[in-house]
Amino acid sequence: MNVLIVGSVALDTVETPHGRLERGLGGAATYASVAASHFSHPGIVAVVGGDFPRAHINLLKRRGIDLAGLQIDANGKTFHWSGYYESDMGAAHTRATELNVFAGFKPALPDSYRAAPHVLLGNIAPALQLDVLRQVRAPRLVLCDTMNYWISSAPREVGQVFRKVDIVCINEDEARQFTGAASLPAAAQALLKLGPQRVVIKKGANGVALFGKDTFFSLPAIPLKTVRDTTGAGDSFAGGFVGCLARARKLDEDAFRRAVVAGTVMASFCVEDFSCRRTCRATKRDILKRAALLREYTRIPKWKV
Amino acid sequence: MNVLIVGSVALDTVETPHGRLERGLGGAATYASVAASHFSHPGIVAVVGGDFPRAHINLLKRRGIDLAGLQIDANGKTFHWSGYYESDMGAAHTRATELNVFAGFKPALPDSYRAAPHVLLGNIAPALQLDVLRQVRAPRLVLCDTMNYWISSAPREVGQVFRKVDIVCINEDEARQFTGAASLPAAAQALLKLGPQRVVIKKGANGVALFGKDTFFSLPAIPLKTVRDTTGAGDSFAGGFVGCLARARKLDEDAFRRAVVAGTVMASFCVEDFSCRRTCRATKRDILKRAALLREYTRIPKWKV
């Protein structure tokens, strides 16, 4: 296990113009760990209830994901999210959020997790993210991802998390909301001032931007014929991103750029089907093909004035 | 003269959080021709009134812009647009649009313009764009740009224009509005079906996407510390784009990609100051520097899984 991922493992009920998923495998930690499993050995810290299907456990195990940190509360029910998307597949509309076992969740890291060199703090309460950080020993890289709900409800704790991580991975709207900055470059600089060495801003169909103090990298999303369900796209990005970094010898600008490519590729698989079906099916060949596409999509020919 | 540009030449009154411009030099044809003048020899087809300052004429002449097609209606007043931007510098809010001499404008091409090999149909009524096309002899390349107002008021004529051009250059929102497509790739494919060989979709701070039937190229906008006034950014893009193509030996994918770089660079100058001040001041060195920045911002390091 070389990438510790904390976040939700959930059952999702999703409706999109392309179909419906009923209590399917979902949750930030699920999407992120499945994406990361293509590059590294992730382990999950989360909780599920007694109703969590054995088939989902088996799917995660088949992907080589370490579940030593997955608590099973036999008397409780699994976190359930229900929502729908309109035809533009933009923001999700939530119908119901049943926290269930997540309401009282206290992350308790098994000993085997404490030396994890890479940590992804997925979308859960910042207090729990901080709790996880207190339990790990000097990780090489800590990344936090998307904090939408907590930016409005617990902005101070979110700020504390941002001060303790190496990378902030955040949506465009969240970056503006948290910083109050009018432009993304200004928002990124404001976040960098809190301490992280890089800020990754996720822009959905508009791709992603990687900001360092004096560096900037931009990558488009892969244009797809069919976008079936965008749930988990951001988590899949973060998982591919951190999974790729787990294999990097040096954590330099080039390593972060490769990680942005990996994240973008995993997000493109994620949205092609419900749950993490397509991401699970992706082969090494599929991944290399999409990475090559991104290279072609951004190729600038020789140029002179 | 190798690039004919039809559009408005106007006086603009603009307010942004960074200052105010009072009856400054503006208009789609102005911005586009100033940008194009860095790469080619543009000529303008437009009309101004007797109130149009001599200084503005001189500025355009100094940039080597051919004004044989600029009608001066001594008894009329110049088209005047007045508007403001909020702190995010997003969409312009119009305070007043005084068409004045543009209300009765009939483009009449001087003989020296009829053989123009490249034609940019800037943001004016599609009927006038079609009128210009009837007066030119077999141009090598015809491009139309941004049609916001006319997409809702004269969608049929806009469609006629799209069917007669080689390149449609259009804003993200316009592309969605005209095609009704939910995603940009779908909107681009719908536009390509009308006949143009390439569709350029301008996304403001999110950069630009170039779609062919089987090709896709994406370029970010250059992140800038100060964005003073975004008026004319799209026109500057179109001008740089067509100006760069005017020098291409072959009009192939690589030539179009280079043109997207040129357009992006010119738009980045445009927004740094009011009117076309910064775009006028740009040197060859400035242009090459920004083109090099774009190359670095999109550089993908070698990558393997």
Question: Can you walk through the features of this model?
Answer:
Two copies of one chain form a homodimer. By secondary structure, the first copy, chain A, is of the alpha/beta class. Chain A contains eleven helices and 13 strands. Chain A has helices spanning 28-36, 54-62, 126-135, 148-153, 155-164, 172-179, 184-192, 233-245, 253-270, 277-281, 284-297, and strands spanning 3-6, 10-16, 19-26, 42-49, 66-73, 80-84, 93-98, 118-121, 141-145, 167-171, 198-202, 208-211, 216-219. In chain A, strands 5-4-1-8-9-10-11-12-13 form a nine-stranded mixed β-sheet, sandwiched between helices. In chain A, strands 3-2-6-7 form a four-stranded mixed β-sheet. In chain A, helix 1 packs across helix 8, helix 3 (126-135) runs parallel beside helix 5 and helix 9 (253-270) crosses helix 11. Chain A is globular. The termini of chain A are far apart. The relative contact order of chain A is 0.15. The A-B interface holds A 38-39, 87-89, 182-185, 203, 205-207, 209, 216-220, 223-225, 227, 254, 257-258, 261, 284, 287-288, 291, 294-295, 297-301, 303-305 and B 38-39, 87-89, 182-185, 203, 205-207, 209, 216-220, 223-225, 227, 254, 257-258, 261, 284, 287-288, 291, 294-295, 297-301, 303-305.
Q: Could you list the spans of chain A in which at least 5 consecutive residues all have pLDDT below 50?
A: none
Number of helices of chain A: 11
Structural class of chain A: alpha/beta
Shape of chain A: globular
Name the beta content range of chain A: 15-25%
Oligomerization state of this entry?
A: homodimer
Largest interface: A-B, 41 and 41 residues
Count of β-strands of chain A: 13
Radius of gyration of chain A: 18 Å
Amino-to-carboxy terminus distance of chain A: 51 Å
Question: What is the element string of chain A, with H for helices and E for strands?
Answer: EEEHEHEEEEHEHHEHHEEEHHHH
| Sheet with the most strands, sense and barrel status of chain A | 9 strands, mixed
Mean pLDDT of chain A: 95
Strand order of the largest sheet of chain A: 5-4-1-8-9-10-11-12-13
Helix content of chain A: 25-40%
